[in-house]
Amino acid sequence: MFPSRKIGLLILACFLCRWAPVQAQKVVLCDSFSQLEKHIQPYLDAQHTVVINFWATWCSPCVEELPYFEELHRQYGDEKVEVVLVSLDFKSYHEKRVIPFVRDNKVSADVLHLTDMETNEWMPKVHPSWDGALPFTVVVRGDRREAFAEKFKDFAELDTFVRPFLVSSQSASSAHNGSAKK
Amino acid sequence: MKNTTCKLFLLALIFLFVRAGHPATYIVGDRVEDFNLPGVDNKKVTLDNYPNARGFFVIFTCNHCPYAQLYEQRIIDLHNKYAPKGFPVIAINPNDPDIVPEDSFEEMQKRAKSKRYPFAYAFDNEQTVFRLFGANRTPHVFLLDQDRIVRYIGAIDDNPEMASAAKNKYAEQAVEALMRGERPNPDFTRAVGCQIKYRKN
């Protein structure tokens, strides 16, 4: 095969990847909670609203509500809302469960796999009320932080929970109108 | 003047009523009320059933939760090791079987039989006991002393995946402290678990 054809194919491949309709995210493995904090700090610095959902592949209510977070990511992607899905699966599940799950379900929001075993240390930093039951969701913006300690029953419930944190009510209503038109 | 007193009285009444409607959950240092729940052997499970107990491991757990399953053998071991020393395990399933059919009373009976549970396995069918305890997840341990005062709340140990790799066996350390006449330290731990599946009214 001629080198120029190789390059041509490579460019074509890149082009196809770039324009793939749904591209699954890479799963970032975090051994310590500080890595998770580092990941979200730029969002907080930029005054974005960060929705962090703690889940696991073995947790059926968590898996059931993941599509609502994907929907949130789609609807508010341009509204300075960051959706971060934090898997608390065992580290040994990284290759065999977490990565295939994210790939097969074409998850497009950020996925982090947190394997920090010092739960007593880091769980209260997420929210003082959290003692480890899954699923668990916090929404953070600047100094404001609110927790939701159960499964969202539908997208509307998640939307209602996140909406007060949106940068301005104006942008919230435009996002809403935008989604209504679809 | 009379009117103001009346208003104050009414306010106090409303306050009492509201407080009564939302009873506080147990924290370390609180004395636990006895409960009366159906056990898998069709007998009632109460703390009074154990007149010689020096304390209890009240553990909210269930059939379906993968974390509860990971800890199942450790709960059996805990009972086998400490029941002879006066600290039996009482396991309570708080989940609503309408949400998780695997956690029905019949399924509890099957599991207790097949795994030969040496401890009482009770069903919180009214979902009142877990609320009183403030249990949130399965498995969730509450260690009581002889006076039924909560002395430890939290996890069994710090390694759900592999018992042999646990660095801290919290539940064992807590009961050993009680047997020495000391207060457990830590007396509260956080750990991953399955949220309790409760009916919403």
Please give a structural write-up:
- The complex is a heterodimer of chains A (182) and B (201).
- Chain A is an alpha/beta fold.
- Chain A has helices at 3-18, 33-45, 60-76, 94-104, 119-126, 155-162, 169-181; strands spanning 27-30, 49-55, 81-87, 110-114, 133-134, 136-141, 144-148.
- In chain A, strands 1-4-3-2-6-7 form a six-stranded mixed beta sheet, with helices on both faces.
- In chain A, helix 4 links the parallel strand 3 (81-87) and strand 4 (110-114).
- Chain A is globular and about 40 Å long.
- Chain A starts with a helix and ends with a helix.
- The model of chain A is unreliable at 12-22 and 169-182 (pLDDT under 50).
- Chain B has five helices and nine strands, in the order αβββαβαβαβββαβ.
- Chain B has helices at residues 2-21, 66-82, 105-114, 129-133, 170-179; strands spanning 37-38, 44-45, 56-60, 89-93, 120-123, 137-138, 140-144, 150-154, 193-195.
- Chain B is globular.
- Residues 14-22 of chain B have low confidence and may be disordered.
- Chain B is α/β, with parallel strands linked by helices and 201 residues long.
- The termini of chain B are far apart.
- Chain B has a five-stranded mixed beta sheet, covered by helices on one side.
- In chain B, 41% of the residues are buried.
- The longest helix of chain B is centred in the first third of the chain and has 20 residues, at 2-21.
- In chain B, 31% of the residues lie in helices and 16% in strands.
